[in-house]
């Protein structure tokens, strides 16, 4: 307590008192600047048939890598820079006190400092409302990947979403929107044998239903727009949970939930009140019919602080390193890390050096903002330069990936259903990853366990997924775009249970068709690139062949 009051006592004793007037004292709270945002939980990735452990989670936004808040000392030093003449003349003193500033001085100077804090708060702590919703896409047209406020209002209409979560955050903060239900079930059986005795032990796990997203929204310089990064997972159970008797005397039944699971990480630039729209639809054997929207809005208009030799400009959309990791397709061993950041990203150090070299101004970065010191003319040039850089790097692209079906014998009439239709938003240079699957568990193997005169068949359960995995990155190339794309399509139907004799037991033999394709080259606006045939599937006893294609629009 004494240590915290000491700076305050020193301020009182050192402030000059013109004409015998007592100095004015004010305490200015800084919680909205400096309070640390709690770490956000990461959505499940790849499957919701098992509750992920910390080792299995993947933070594609790097939500814990950077903080959206500033230290109290940083705010203190920043405000001192704006009032250096008054401080040196002894008319004003400021010091830090926990998450507040103690300001002592002449009434006019204290009022100026109060106004500086207010103006800085309008820039650094502007509240943003983030809304994450999941919609049924069965009766809807495919919306644009980037919706304006008017388009979003028209899209919503009077419809009720399957799930909706709303949170309030500030520039650059990683906010979690979670609405999940985890249900425990018997996933597997373990068997033990000793002499003439056998015993089975149920192994349980949890499957998830609902939606979970982590979002980071960055205000953009010179406009009422936001650059948004989002990682999400959504799942819905299809039908009742199926049970399978293992054939082992006295053993528990194994439960086989069937889930429509979507996982994704995407990005985009939207106007205030607008939204990103991710469309995930297609054949029922490879997932559900979903449209995921992410809306960002703010009732507080954007503000800029450019006065008294200081300019505060948002730059987090450029300097944040989120969505830089490539997720492996099924079968790969580990995460594929980028050696260098992609197009559209600039480190804080490089951006500071750019401002120093181009505009001869002192600059620093923190909490997703750039702080530039200099005369008004220099600040105006720095603002124009940063905005030009931002508009070249933070740009939208829509990726549409389709799987079309055609009847093999050409005897069908009418239109065939599509294998899948994915319409996805992304920013240049940011990794786009999407998974749409129908998943369940199967009894894949039976292992004999034998000891003396006792024996038992130990079932082994594995996951069976049918659907599409997609990973893409887009960067400018002359008058077109360079697309790096990897896509994989798996098609599998839930297999029937077959009894295994002698000894008792159940086995589920699976059949999976797998197609992998890639593209690494330029692509014109609206031009479709074909990836050849996808997996062959059977619908209602009729055979179909599939064809995969991708289109970029910007």
Account of the 3D structure:
The structure is a single chain. The protein has 554 residues and is of the alpha+beta class. The protein folds into 2 domains: 1-34 and 70-125, 2-Layer Sandwich (Ribosomal Protein S8, Chain: A, domain 1), CATH 3.30.1370.120; 35-69 and 126-553, no CATH class. It is 17% helix and 47% strand. The chain is built from 9 helices and 29 strands. It has helices at residues 2-14, 31-34, 72-82, 84-88, 107-124, 149-156, 316-319, 348-359, 376-393; strands at 24-29, 92-97, 100-105, 128-136, 146-147, 163-169, 175-194, 197-219, 225-237, 242-244, 254-256, 259-271, 275-282, 290-297, 305-307, 310-314, 362-366, 369-373, 396-407, 420-427, 432-451, 454-477, 480-492, 498-499, 506-507, 512-523, 528-533, 537-539, 542-553. The strands form 6 sheets. Strands 4, 5, 6, 13, 14, 19, 20, 27, 28 and 29 form a 10-stranded antiparallel sheet that branches. The chain has an 8-stranded antiparallel sheet with strand order 7-8-9-12-21-22-23-26, with no helix packed on it. Mean pLDDT is 87; it is low at 1-6.
Keywords:
elongated; Ribosomal Protein S8, Chain: A, domain 1; 554 residues; 9 helices; single chain; disordered N terminus; 2 domains; ten-stranded antiparallel sheet; eight-stranded antiparallel sheet; alpha+beta
Q: What portion of residues belong to β-strands? A: over 45%
Q: Please tell me how large the radius of gyration is.
A: 29 Å
Q: Which structural class matches the secondary elements?
A: alpha+beta
The residue fraction in helices comes out at: 10-25%
Q: Largest sheet at a glance?
A: 10 strands, antiparallel
Secondary structure tally, helices: 9
Mean pLDDT: 87
Shape: elongated
Number of domains: 2
Distance between the termini: 59 Å
Low-confidence parts: 1-6
Strand tally: 29
């Amino acid at each position: 307590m004494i240590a915290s009051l000491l700076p305050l006592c020193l301020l009182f004793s050192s402030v000059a008192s013109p004409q015998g007037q007592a100095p004015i004292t004010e305490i200015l709270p800084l919680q909205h600047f400096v309070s640390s945002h709690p770490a956000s939980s990461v959505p499940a990735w790849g499957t919701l048939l098992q509750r992920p452990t910390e080792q299995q989670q993947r933070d594609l936004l790097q939500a814990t890598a950077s903080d959206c808040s500033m230290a109290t000392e940083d705010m203190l030093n920043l405000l001192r820079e704006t009032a250096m003449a008054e401080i040196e003349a002894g008319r004003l003193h400021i010091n830090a006190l926990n998450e507040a500033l103690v300001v002592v001085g002449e009434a006019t100077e204290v009022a100026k400092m109060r106004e500086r804090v207010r103006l800085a708060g309008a820039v650094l702590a502007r509240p943003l409302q983030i809304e994450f919703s999941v919609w049924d896409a069965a009766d809807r047209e495919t919306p644009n990947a980037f919706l304006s406020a008017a388009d979003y209002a028209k899209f919503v209409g009077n419809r009720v979403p399957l799930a909706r979560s709303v949170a309030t955050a500030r520039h650059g903060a990683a906010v979690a929107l979670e609405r999940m239900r985890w249900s425990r079930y018997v996933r597997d059986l373990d068997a033990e044998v000793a002499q003439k005795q056998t015993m089975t032990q149920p192994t349980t796990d949890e499957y998830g239903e609902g939606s979970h997203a982590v979002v980071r929204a960055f205000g953009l310089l010179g406009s009422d727009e936001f650059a948004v990064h989002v990682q999400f997972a959504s799942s819905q159970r299809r039908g009742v949970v199926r049970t399978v008797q293992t054939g082992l005397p006295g053993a528990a039944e194994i439960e086989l939930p069937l889930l429509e699971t979507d996982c994704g990480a995407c990005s985009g630039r939207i106007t205030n009140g607008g939204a990103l729209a991710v469309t995930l639809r297609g054949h029922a054997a490879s997932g559900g019919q979903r449209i995921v929207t992410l809306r960002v809005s703010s009732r507080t208009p954007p503000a800029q602080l450019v006065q008294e030799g200081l300019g505060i400009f948002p730059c987090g959309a450029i300097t944040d390193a989120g969505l830089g990791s490539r997720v492996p397709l099924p079968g790969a061993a580990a995460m594929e890390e980028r050696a260098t950041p992609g197009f559209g990203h600039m480190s804080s150090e490089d951006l500071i050096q750019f401002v120093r070299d181009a505009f001869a101004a002192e600059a620093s970065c923190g909490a997703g903002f750039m702080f530039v010191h200099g005369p008004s003319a220099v600040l105006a040039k720095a603002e124009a330069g940063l905005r030009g850089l931002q508009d070249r790097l933070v740009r939208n692209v829509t990726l549409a990936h389709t799987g079309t079906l055609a009847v093999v014998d050409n005897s069908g009439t009418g239109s065939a259903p599509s294998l899948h239709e994915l319409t996805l938003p992304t920013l240049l240079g940011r990794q786009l990853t999407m998974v749409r699957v129908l998943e369940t568990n199967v009894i894949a193997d039976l292992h004999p366990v034998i000891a003396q005169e006792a024996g038992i068949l130990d079932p082994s359960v594995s996951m069976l997924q049918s659907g599409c995995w997609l990973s893409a990155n887009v960067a400018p190339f002359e008058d077109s775009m360079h697309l790096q794309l990897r896509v994989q399509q798996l098609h599998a139907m839930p297999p029937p249970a077959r009894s295994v004799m002698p000894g008792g037991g159940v086995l589920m033999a699976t059949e999976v068709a797998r197609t992998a394709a890639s593209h690494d080259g330029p692509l014109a606006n609206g031009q479709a690139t074909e990836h050849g045939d996808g997996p062959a599937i059977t619908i209602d006893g009729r055979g179909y062949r599939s064809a995969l294609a991708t289109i970029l629009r910007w």
